[in-house]
Amino acid sequence: MACQKNIMNFFKPVAVKRPLSNIVDNDTNKKPKVENVNETLEADKCKEVNKNSPFFSKYIQAKIKLTSKRFPALHPNIGESWFEALSSEFGKPYFKKLSEFLAKERASNTVYPPEHQVWTWTHTCHISKVKVVILGQDPYHNPRQAHGTKSVFQCFCWGTTSSKEFATATCEANCNVMHLLNMYKELERDIPGFQTPRHGNLIGWARQGVLLLNACLTVRAHNANSHKDQGWENLTDAVVKYISDNSRNVVFLLWGSYAQKKAASVDKKKHHLLMSTHPSPLSAHRGFLGCGHFSRCNELLKEKGKKPIDWGDLPEE
């Protein structure tokens, strides 16, 4: 009969199983099963967080902590804005080598400044607020000179901070302190009303946006320039370039040939470069004394609508 059904009509056909190789080859859009939970957690830590998020600061602090564990040359107390600006540098081979070098140096020698003070220069001023840059070579290599906490930047003599230490060093004709005394002498000549303080603490300048930066951020005790060519110069070159590329109308005070070479990458169309000899006892009388850089710096800042530096704002603490 035409309407008669075969018994096989009452059963569903059995699905044909695909070979495992076909499943693997064809299902490329499916996410693979995660075998290692720790890998997923690490990936989550690296996800970008919007800067407007209330969690952004915690996110940056977590990145700083992770990075400083990998590279001891970076201390966890680096300023957040500086870490953001320089984060690409910390993964480069030179920074890994620098970290290894510093670990060996600290294990067998006294190194200035102490680890927790190396990045003090990033604490006081947001990187976008820098108005003036003064470049130096390396921290001083004797006790209480490359101090870092009260003195902030270890650029020329930012270390003899107390009145007693400063007076003692001056009486001993300490060459390092003489650099700073020559700066004070020029300030007295150039800035009406400036009075030389009885200490070497320049944090008052830093709070106003004056960055005092050495090419090298560490030094072995009693061995000047001993950490030269170990990697710090790459990092501080990146600082100078970042400020040049991302700011405008910054005044660079370049005293001596070393500082002038260090600023070779600065865009002269966007920024102001004032050059003279170094304020050391050997060269200060050949151009630094009488250069008028402090007053000229303030004139340039005011011309661009920026607040001038109060060079006399130098609290001891």
Question: What would you say this structure looks like, in words?
Answer:
With 317 residues, the protein is of the alpha/beta class. It is 36% helix and 8% strand. It contains 11 helices and 6 strands. The longest helix has 16 residues, at 93-108. The relative contact order is 0.12. Residues 23-46, 141-162 and 168-173 have low confidence and may be disordered.
Rounded to an integer, what's the Rg over CA atoms? Answer: 29 Å
Q: Tell me the span between the first and last alpha carbons.
A: 110 Å
Largest sheet, strands/sense/barrel: 4 strands, parallel
**Global geometry:** globular
Structural class: alpha/beta
Within the largest sheet, what's the order of strands? 3-2-5-6
In DSSP terms (H or I, runs of 4 or more residues), the helix count works out at 11
How helix-rich are the residues, as a percent range? 25-40%
Sequence stretches where pLDDT stays below 50 over 5 or more residues = 23-46, 141-162, 168-173
Q: Secondary-structure element sequence?
A: HHHHHEEHHHEEHEHEH
Quaternary structure state of the chains depicted: single chain
Strand tally is 6
Average residue-wise pLDDT:
80
Beta strand %: 5-15%
Features:
317 residues, alpha/beta, two-stranded antiparallel ribbon, 11 helices, 6 strands, globular
Compact summary:
This protein has 317 residues and is an alpha/beta fold. It is 36% helix and 8% strand.
Which secondary structure elements does this structure contain, and how are they paired or packed?
Elements: H1 20-26, H2 37-45, H3 56-70, H4 80-86, H5 93-108, E1 111-112, E2 132-136, H6 163-171, H7 175-190, H8 203-206, E3 210-214, E4 219-220, H9 232-246, E5 251-255, H10 257-262, E6 272-276, H11 293-303
Parallel strand pairs: 2-3, 2-5, 5-6
Antiparallel strand pairs: 1-4
